[in-house]
Design brief:
By secondary structure, the protein is α/β, with parallel strands linked by helices. It is 33% helix and 31% strand. The strands form 3 sheets. Strands 1, 4, 5, 6, 7, 8, 9 and 10 form an 8-stranded mixed β-sheet that branches. The structure holds uracil (URA).
Amino acid sequence: MPLVTVLDHPLLRHKLTLLRDRGTTTGKFRQVAREISLLMAYEVTRDLPLEPVEIETPLETMRAEHLAGKKLCIVSILRAGNGILDGMLDLVPSARVGHIGLYRDPVTLQPVEYYLKLPNDIAERLVILVDPMLATGHSATAAAFRLKQAGVATMKFVCLLAAPEGIAGFTQAHPDVPVFTGAIDRELDSHGYIRPGLGDAGDRFYGTR
Ligand code: URA
């Protein structure tokens, strides 16, 4: 599996443009992000293994298929990760959910964990770690380390947009965790925003600015 995959389905690209547009309202932003997340969940679960199962259709017995192996857990990096969670759960409603909260220490600039709630059996699950913006990559990198500490062996990281700097940092720290993104933008600015980007994802999701 490639280290970084840009999910470039035309519907996704169209919807990303709506997210980027500053004129998109909070309600519309939330709705479109949910639709994008569902499409992304569809793409990142493409390699889930299937196993045969015998079922009865109304007409006859048949050998059909259902999902085999590891069950899913989606882990959201608070708070903006929650905006992606809902769309993914639309597609995989039985997935378990974990949350991880990190803030940036103003002195060391390093991520500090302030909240963690994970399913007890997370080590046996395929984890999809979600955060809309892979900017510096510090939060996602720390979250992935924390999940590995909790025993997670198989993980994918999904974001809406990534900066080259975030991709470089994350993939260097976690070459075993494939990254899926809607686009790789030009750069990070001096305030840590992705350019051209879509602004502050948390604020756009929750209308806090
Ligand atoms: N976080 C955001 O919400 N937006 C950015 O551009 C960078 C980090």
